[in-house]
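Usage example:
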Amino acid sequence: MGCYAAAFRHDGRRKVKLPQGLLCALLCLLAAWVANAQGSSHPRLLLTAAEVRENADSWRQSEYFSALLKRTQERVDSYFQTAPEVPWPKDAGGGYTHEQHKRNAAAVWDAGLLYLWTGEPEYSNHVRGLLLAYSDLYPSLPEHPQKKEQAPGRLFWQSLNEAVWLVNSILGYDAVYESLSTADRSRIESRLFRNMVEFLSVESPQTFDRIHNHGAWAAAAVGMTGYVLNDSGYVNRALLGLKQDGSAGFLKQLDELLSPGGYYQEGPYYQRYALMPLVLFAKAIEQNEPERRIFDYRGGVLRKAIHTTLQLSYNGKFFPINDAIKDKGLDTFELDYAIPIAWGLTLEPSLLSLLEGRGTLALTGDGLRMARAWEAGLGAPFAYASIQLRDGPEGGGGALSIMRSGSHPGHAALVFKATSQGMGHGHFDRLNWLYYDNGREIISDYGAARFLNIVQKNGGHYLPENNSWAKQTVAHNTLVVDHNSHFGGVLQAAEEAAPDTHFFHLGEQTQIASAREANAYPGVEFTRTVMLLKSQAFPAPLVVDILKVRGNTAHQYDLPLYYQGQVIESTPPLVAASTTLKRVGNSNGYQHLWLRARNTIERGVKYSHTWLAGNRFYTWSQIANARLSVLMTETGASDPEFNLRHEPGLLFRVEDANRVTFVGALETHGEYNGAREFTTGSGSRIAAIRRFGAGDKDLIQIETITGERLCLAFSYDADTSKTHAISLPDGNFAWAGFHRRFSC
Amino acid sequence: MGCYAAAFRHDGRRKVKLPQGLLCALLCLLAAWVANAQGSSHPRLLLTAAEVRENADSWRQSEYFSALLKRTQERVDSYFQTAPEVPWPKDAGGGYTHEQHKRNAAAVWDAGLLYLWTGEPEYSNHVRGLLLAYSDLYPSLPEHPQKKEQAPGRLFWQSLNEAVWLVNSILGYDAVYESLSTADRSRIESRLFRNMVEFLSVESPQTFDRIHNHGAWAAAAVGMTGYVLNDSGYVNRALLGLKQDGSAGFLKQLDELLSPGGYYQEGPYYQRYALMPLVLFAKAIEQNEPERRIFDYRGGVLRKAIHTTLQLSYNGKFFPINDAIKDKGLDTFELDYAIPIAWGLTLEPSLLSLLEGRGTLALTGDGLRMARAWEAGLGAPFAYASIQLRDGPEGGGGALSIMRSGSHPGHAALVFKATSQGMGHGHFDRLNWLYYDNGREIISDYGAARFLNIVQKNGGHYLPENNSWAKQTVAHNTLVVDHNSHFGGVLQAAEEAAPDTHFFHLGEQTQIASAREANAYPGVEFTRTVMLLKSQAFPAPLVVDILKVRGNTAHQYDLPLYYQGQVIESTPPLVAASTTLKRVGNSNGYQHLWLRARNTIERGVKYSHTWLAGNRFYTWSQIANARLSVLMTETGASDPEFNLRHEPGLLFRVEDANRVTFVGALETHGEYNGAREFTTGSGSRIAAIRRFGAGDKDLIQIETITGERLCLAFSYDADTSKTHAISLPDGNFAWAGFHRRFSC
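Running the assembly step on the lines above writes:
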């Protein structure tokens, strides 16, 4: 408590704590008073002195905000109970020195915010103490001993962490700026911040000028420091790149990192992360140079990016496509800032509902006003939408399609991935799909093979199984040809082309997305059409999936399906491997699959698989116009360090065929109620699925056990001026454009 | 809506619906008015006419009760939208006719309750219609075509279901009695209820006079019918058995089914079920013959049984020992009645807290008063306790010990099972244990192999794997000798003897339960001592487990441990079976275990196994005074119908030894926070576990990585007058009685 400074040498972890004196406390109080009484020049990043003054008393009237502030206070008070160590950098990510420097930066930021709201000088003293300690340490640091090859840091093994550190610290410094003496400011700025800025920009051009989220963090760090230090050179460098010609820098990042609709090519998990430097720096730009109208830049791409991030979720968790830790969702730190910033710009009532049950939020003016509006009952339910998110800087890199049965809790959501590769964190899963219902994953994606921050698991980094399993095509619900992953599993090849997303339609009863992939395998093209249908013949939305594969020679076609739940029934029954389990294959991900059971299904015969997930039943029904091997699999083979979760799957295999059409349907049905001891509708309602092909056109007929029929006709040609027809003994079906649904 | 009667013939499902006339409605209203205006003689089972009158208006002031009632109304209104079928009995449990008769009985009860509270004649008409239909059907019914051998029914395949049906229906009839004409009453009573009573009692002596929960249901059905029909002969038969001499019947059930503390030998899952007829009939006895003081009978065993049922749970779910479906818990139907009845007797504030988040409760006077008390803020948190529950009618059949770290949500609970066998639903798992923490199962029991009411899964009955896996010893966390289950897996042998529960101690820092099993295997005796310890050396409660096995010849000793979570680390590392999985054995449950990995650990060397469950880490550390094989297992082998869940386990094996002592410890540590991206304390703090034996005495020393030591000395002799000592190079340890804890 009180004022202190901690000084540290790189030869050890020696701490020096200055005496806490009355004079010191008085000086602190005086400084705080001066800051509050005058038109202060700081803070000027996420909130302004005027905002703080305006709410100096009234924030206590918000129960929600007060509770947040109190929790932050408890955390910060506990952290500073003994002066935090500022150790000589030594460890890689996950190790002690790495984590300690991260913790210190977060504490600087938190303590700064607390100082602004409470005016308690102890908090500005905490910031001052740590920043002076870093000012002593930083100038003498060489490159980090565990440096990563491409972009080493000094405090950290990679410069990315250093940029994040600076963003945290400059926010804390900005908050307490007015309370510091000129001597302190000068020491901290010259020894610490200016050194870091030079290191992150001029001395790290390969990162700073890169159009990549690492570059965005560096730009944000340098630009925000520029505003706080009144150094327009830094700001220009951040906005326009080292050459200051706009060929790199923040504006270029905004041009190229996001699609016009605000989708980030690496997928939702990294979108959340990439969003952080973008919105923080943009907010700072808005505060300091409102005339730039940064949030309107490029059609408001940043506002759209925040909304897109929220839409990329189900039941609070992000869709785990590409490298993704599945427990990440809307409750993450990044959204603590992004949500209030978006709300501050739009005052959209539906954003307020995201505060329900949320334990954390930015302690900013936006955060406070948002909390008060929510407490005043101004919120509306968040409107989860069916949307297609185009990928690529111009929107030409494929798309992610999200089809929902509604917006209510427990609604069904079908996600169809026909995006571009998404750089190094992308998976080889063209035309993959996922399904959610009843608050749960039903058809799932493994996500990344990684235990974030758990040192025993490869130091918390990506595991070897991320490459050998999670990225491979067979780990996804999409086509594998000849046991090989899309693009041979080669990133560079995959980056060159995106799928052709030739059709997307949102109707009241029928939602459809369709795409074609012609580059993943030489000589093989596949078109997938997925639908979310409402029909009186089914108690819940029905998914239909049509995968048409054309090879110019004979191939083996494998179509995996990963589901979450407990098997209830398979028809015809699969034959289990009872006494010995073998692997499905020995490479490209297949080596991680145990073969638990299998059977062979004749051409056109339906295989159906029912499972229980939560309190509902789900049945997948599959036909193909070829003899089908059905394999039941489970992950966990070739896993010497027990890194994989053990999850069930099916694999539908057609051997030795040129062209094949797979047609599948997913029903949601019935209820299992253990507490009340009843079960209803545990069986599938689909009696038959039939496909009638005519040239490139298809008519799919789904018949229920009570005789209702649903017919779906497809030309796979989006041109609505063209008409099509299929004649069957039952009658003639004619339509225009891509598809039509018939009563039949 | 309105009055109607449905009549059904056994040659079909024909429905006859009488016209709904004004006269009919007026008669119904008149009858309801008469019932409410006069001192009515009915209802007289779970609530009285006086209770209903008293609360006729005021129940609407309870939001909770009104909401319950409204939900029941919605359900019942929807059920009676078309006249429910009363089909000719045909199907076994789970089939249509079985479920339909169950649904009808529940609807009769519900509609009766609604009639009492709302006075709406449509509800009494629903009851009347169904009961008249059953009056037409019942007299002509032969034995059920799917009859179960031991106790066939007529409406149902077993008489148990028929007794439950009668309990439901007589409650509905009691509720609407005053609204019915004499002719209707006479028809329903003579054709339906009296026939059923005779069938369930005189004609089914093997069930009626059996001391078993089936007998309790029959007694409740007959006795409650006796009260409603004013037939004291039925009541006496129910209370005292067919001979009316007390050799059977309800009072004998109360004497013998429950232990003096209110524990039911089959375990919590069936305790919940067995409780239902006991408390319903007891409540009816209390209403009609308060002078019997039935709730004080045998030291208040029924009150104790209700409380015991509540204590036999963690985070709302029952401890799943013996045959148990794991999703059953305090939210079940049976407790909707038991909880308010207990509250009506005791007005214990802690029972009120069980209404928090509870969506269902009995629509009785007790239920209403309880809801109002809760709404008035009179509740207190339920006091989950550390207790030992003696088993057996005299308490001499072993015990179930529950040790808790507190009563707060997320507290840790250690369950030690040293009970008697528990009849046909008992598992062969003497001295098994379970552990809960942070709201989750940590060390788990498989429970029963059954999907309740799911017809595809063996008609919803117990699966073959219940015998071949779930009941077998190797499916539990206890000793298996020579690959064979306790008592050779023979029920009769197991029923003959219970473990010797020789020690139980509840201290502030130390809770201990110890028991000895000498009958499970000829020539082998084993003593197990489990402890829940608080210690400054550990951040969370520590479990210590000492299993001492003495064989008079050499045996193979297997000690399984089933945990829930994802493996983080095994030290020394186990060697995984990467390309082929084999089974651990081929009989007595071993055939269901895949052998995933193994290693051999030298005598005295510690094996430790860390996993992640929820957001916490757990480490099990094991030593033995013999060479130890460590096997990592997973359930799912020899499972042709995919009936088993796939769950991980460890199996510690000592081959070819006479005497062995296994010492294990379970730590809870650290935090994994995915949303906030941090992990703390993911590693074990135990550096070493050492055992120093001296004769039959042991000193266990646990040393942490920071050098703290915890020493636990055991004589295994509860006689506190005896003193004991062990001398070590470090010092001498002396104590009196069973155990002592030392700083060392």
